[in-house]
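Board notes (copied after class):
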Amino acid sequence: MKRIIFVILLSMLILSLLAACSGNNPVVTAVPDQPTPTEEPMALKVNGEGITMTEYQSELTRLQDALTQQGVSNTAEEQRNRVINDFTDQLLLAQAATQAGYVVDDATLQTRIDALASQMGGLDRLQAWQSEYGYTDASFRIAFKRSIAAAWQRDQIVNGVPTMADQVHARQILVQEEANADLYYQQIQNGTVFAELAYTLDPATGGDLGWFPKGYLTQPEVEEAAFALQPGEYSEVIKSTLGYHIIFVIERDPAHALSVDARSVLQQNALDEWLAASRAAATIEVLVQ
């Protein structure tokens, strides 16, 4: 027994001497490596900001449900591109809003969520919708916050379109055969009154195009010709996807009030141009096949 105690005491002494020889260096105990959090897979990144695969799949499912209800058939690639493009636009708009100083604080976000829940028939309905499309409360808040910021930036762009613009009031003769267009053009040159001929061919409206600004007509060739004319002048025969036109400008106003439809078209044009420029300057990574 004494021998055993002696061995134990000797062992303790050796350990204490070893510790003393090590100076002030502490004894380092190995700690098992901590698991590194796994980053959620991304479907898209725009300027470093991403859309998770979960959110992408949720949006794709919603699109597919909507197309099914509408009886519309799209290929998988068309559906993918539509979702990716929509998310890209939303990110670009939201990022621009942030750069402009727009902030969606927690109070504002909660107010919007409460209003949305009320519109859907209650918080239970909203939570059921979130669950159906794979959203957690946290991921829904992130997505909703982004959409609020994107909507704010969109409003800044479209509301920047003025309510008045340089416009012309014109009428046209439109036919499908070039030979007929040439014949009518010759008649006008020989003195036939444009409006009388136009009403002969189109008794309902006399070919009246109404007032329109640049960027409104779907045939740019026709629009370009109209704005190159002065009141009382007519164009040569113009070919477009619709047929053959002869344009006559009735009047012109450099600051004419835009119709609701015309301003809506110009607003969409402004938004499209902004997005095109922003896409060209952005770093866009599509990570989903």
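Comment from the instructor: The chain has two domains: 42-160+282-286, 165-254. Residues 1-36 have pLDDT under 50 and may be disordered.
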